[in-house]
Amino acid sequence: MTAPVRALCAGVLCALAPFAAATASAAPNLPANRVLEKVSPDDKSGGDAMLLSQTRYGGIGGAFSSAMPGRVVYDSYASFAGSDTGWLSQYLARRTADGWVSLPITAPLDADFSSAADFLANYGAFLCDTCEDVVGWTQIAADPTDTTGSFDAYVTDGHGWTRVSRGSLPGAGAGSPDFQAPQVSADGRSIGWETSDVIEPEAAGSLPGAINAYVRRDGRTRLVNRATDGTLLGEAGASIGGLASSVGGATRSGGGGPNAISQDGRRVFFVTGERAGGRPMHLYVREDDRVTRQLDAEQCVQATCDDAGVLPVFAGASRSGELAYFGSATRLVDGDGSSDPTAPGLYQYNLTTGRLRFIAPDVVKNQNRLVNALSDDGQTLLLTSTQVLANAPNARGDVPVAGADNLYLAKPEASGGTQYTFIGVRAFVSGSTFSANGRFATLVSPSPLTQQDTAGTTQTYRLDVASGAVICVSCGDGQPLASMPELGAADLPTRPSNDGAIAFTTATPLDPRDDNGRDDVYLWQDGRTYLLTSGHGDADQIVVDVSADGTDVYFATSDRLVPGDHDGNRDLYDARVGGGFPTPDPAPEGCVGDACQPPPGPAPVPFAPASGTARPGEQPALPTRVGAVSVRKQSARREKVTLRVSAPTAGVLTVSGRYVTTRRVAVSRAKSMTLTVTLTSSARRALKRSKKLRVTGAVQFRPNTGRTTTARFAVTTKA
After folding, report:
1. How far is CA 279 from CA 247, 274, 306, 338, 486, in A?
2. Does residue 656 fall inside a structural domain?
3. CATH code assigned at 706
4. Interval 385-399: pLDDT, tens
């Protein structure tokens, strides 16, 4: 392991270090409808698939998936698949009909980083839910036109980066308290950020150094914090979703709930700061870049309200942006029953009706969030309050305790009231999330929420929103329990799928084959618990994510779980419903060169319990080794790159890389051939601007039988 890698893995950010040597492992216990697929490539230049400071569902760094099945992001300290960062790379894996393809999405990193925190302070990326692109930010120039040396927001499709922000992002990266990473709408068309640079003329009225909020949509950048008449709102600054640590000199905590930019990008929620002596902060929504509304204006009939010192905390919105939630320590409507001046009341604003309503009193922040979890439609919340809001006991027979942190399921009703279901006292740690359809929720609690005695350990529970039923999915059937890992977000259980499946890690042996005393990955599905990893490995395994529809269950392991995994490194896997790839048909007689296009490689073997799979300690049969692919000659002319490639046997060649389109060609025998690939649209624009462009990439060869090999290329093209 090199010195930079040792530095990377020195702290808790390296969730998978130290890496144990991979061993051939027994087949996992998959449900009958799932097949195991290896997501990361076998040729990873000696590196491991990693999770660094993982934040799911829109975060910085780490491995996570989008709402669309078959798309996931992961890290590695090695460069492969055309990446040339030289230090640490992040990859977008996409599932195709022929297999998984990894594309590099990290800008070239020439800086000398001394630690993982140093690297993560300079780069981050995340998937939008319903688009093909990855949105990220970096201080490293990923676009030839970026000469500022400041932080900028970028978008990439895996074939080159395009800068979308103008002006430097505030702070000195992710480690800075003033830093705010870009935000993106679910459709990927709207990207928001803050900067103290004056981009639009209206921002010129800001106080010196104040940050303002901008959104770029469909190629157009606009100032967010302005009134309907176009005048500036927030002379002392503004923040999308109230995420910035200080606005207008008023330091706050909390905020940053989901959907600060609505799914379709039409609505942007922001918090402002005013001049000294004025009202310090207000919450607004900008709609269609035409109309701005204040959400925290009082709507009292009786003379009991005052919005002069609201200090609102944005708690989140529905994906459509129709329903917005925020906290206020000031009474804004009649019937606000808050009694603790340090704990805000929770409010809902309906943008369709313009109605402000009170939801819950004395709400307590958990993990710096005012609302523990919010469903996509905004109709269901998990929140913690110190007041007794429900009288009915929970599944254990416990009742709320006045003054304690009581966890509730809250459902605002059309009549104007709110239905509360008591879940437990001091029940919330972190990781509470709703399924995409709002039917189920994941809970992580140190307090027992069912009749099962957890002996003071932290466990994972599933809440059925419709019935209120709670199930401990990690408790097993009477065996001694180990606490859930609490090292960081990478160790949290996943959100439930729409059908209620949850993946999690635990050292509790919930399967007789799990005998290593380490954290292994399990899947709870349809009332049964399935061991996904071997249970015999020397290292802790990591759960990654479950796609919204439950098709994909991602996890990272050093166990060898499929015959094609023989590189001795940690890989990313997918236990996929209806998974597996078709076995290629024999090439037709007379088929030569580019005319042959069979799918590559043998199909993964379904690993449901069955005869013929490897037993514990046995090593799956490895493919026969063949010669390596090579690039004999390379050249570039304007928008085309030409490679002379030698394939050692029959198989499939894949050309990919930064700035070039991906091309696959099947070969029926050992041969040399000329392949030409074109520049991506973003690369063509960059070439037009800078007149010269360095193009790098890789040629991967997957033989019909044998081990995948890779050869790299680097060439400079001129306009």
Report:
1. 12, 6, 11, 22, 40
2. yes
3. 2.60.40.10
4. 999 999 999 988 999
